[in-house]
Specification:
Elements (H helix, E strand, L loop, with lengths): L4 E2 L20 H14 L4 E3 L9 E5 L11 H8 L2 E23 L2 E19 L5 E7 H14 L10 H15 L9 E2 L3 H4 L1
Parallel strand pairs: 1-7
Antiparallel strand pairs: 2-3, 3-4, 4-5, 5-6
């Protein structure tokens, strides 16, 4: 089932996600619905807060990035085959060099900006079967994971922009929160009267 994606301005997007256990209600169904929702919106990642659930769950499929001709065949292969569910994730370490890449977000449609992030992360998490993992990622994989991880920490990519850039985007962001945007996937816009 395709779910609605919360738009910028919804308070759930600012909550730190809660840890879940393997008996979380209808977890398998939730994960299946999140995959369907993400693919329907042409995304490469989706976090539970984006569908209104402040829990530590996100998923990533970097397959679409594999078509980039500027990548080496090895990089393309790694991206093509990367599809994972992350539950109760914790970034243990970030290292390497800062690099800038143009990011977007399904909760903030029609805005893409250059965001600087460290290129290597070490992350511990549970998969959909609650099997524990501790892995190191770099490059584009690390970036997509960091972007989704930020969601379960209540952080949006626009938070990482300069104050000047934020001021320039204020009008666009306000329009998104008011529903003044055309998207080809289901979105839910905040009730701004309740938020105030």
């Amino acid at each position: 089932m395709t779910l609605s994606i919360l738009a910028y301005g919804d308070p759930v997007l600012r909550k730190t996600g809660k840890t879940i256990t393997k008996d979380y209600p209808q977890l398998k169904e939730l994960i299946a619905n999140m995959w369907e929702t993400m693919y329907n919106a042409n995304g490469v990642g989706l976090a539970a807060p984006q569908i209104g659930l402040p829990i530590r769950l996100f998923l990533v499929d970097t397959g679409p990035f594999a078509e980039d001709d500027e990548l080496t065949p090895e990089e393309q292969e790694a991206l093509r085959n990367f599809k994972k569910v992350f539950i109760n994730a914790k970034i243990e370490q970030q290292s390497g060099t800062n690099w800038t890449f143009n990011e977007g977000c399904l909760s903030i449609p029609d805005i893409r900006e250059d965001v600087s992030r460290l290129d290597t992360i070490e992350i511990s998490y549970m998969d959909e079967n609650f099997k524990p993992h501790k892995e190191t990622y770099n490059g584009l994989l690390a970036r997509v994971i960091q972007h989704e991880y930020d969601h379960i920490e209540g952080i949006l990519f626009t938070d990482k922009l300069s104050s000047l850039k934020k001021r320039l985007l204020k009008g666009k962001l306000t329009n998104i929160s008011k529903g003044k945007i055309n998207v080809d996937y289901k979105m839910r816009f905040p009730d701004l009267k309740k938020v105030r």
